[in-house]
Amino acid sequence: MTDTMADTVPNPVPAEPIARRKTYELVAERLVDMIGQGALRSGDALATERELTERFAVGRSSVREALRMLESQGVIRAEGGSSFVVAEAMNPLNSSLRMLFALDERTGIHDLFELRRILECEAAALAAERKIPADLAEMDAATEEMAAALADSGLADDFIDADLRFHLALAGATGNRLVLHSMHAVRDVLRRALLTVYRIPQSPESAVGEHRKIREAIAAGDAVRARDEMRAHLDRVELDVHKGGGDG
Ligand SMILES: [Zn+2]
Description:
Layout: H1 2-7, H2 23-36, H3 49-56, H4 60-72, E1 76-79, E2 83-86, H5 92-103, H6 109-130, H7 133-151, H8 156-172, H9 177-198, H10 203-219, H11 223-243
Antiparallel strand pairs: 1-2
């Protein structure tokens, strides 16, 4: 036992300097503090993006990124178009799935797409059985936002937000809260992979067309077709992710 102690060498891994905090992280931290201190309670609306930009004297993109991060962590949730409220309960699935992805190096993009197929093909079928008009309208709005993002800004972020919004609307259309929570968690790790897909020529255009086909099948109440269209969409996107070298 004493031998073991004597043989112990100091930790050979040099301490690396901690990266400087990013502005959006500081903004997010400030908002979390306000919630923690009770200045903002569950269900309270957050100030608008513009108000927060002025209040914190930071760039709008930092506020946007902070809101997106807090939303994906389940701290806040979107309500209506672009406003946010403090969430009732955090979604612990989000942080665990993200953590798993970061820590378990054997987990890759292919696993993520397999999980998506398991989750989203059945979600599409369920949505087709229920075909609730409000959910269809939300899917339409998301798909039109994708098309608009392609036409005007060409900004990958806007496009990807709208793309993910479609998939969340579809998950919500199942009427199953756990499916929706799971999709929220998947979205969080998916965002990075989608950035690589956006750069593949014709990939974003294909996504718009595929979303419309999925939506049509759901509106027609055709569960089999909805499942098949979702599968075709996910298979194509996964292929493009690998083409884009985004298998990390
Ligand atoms: Zn999609």
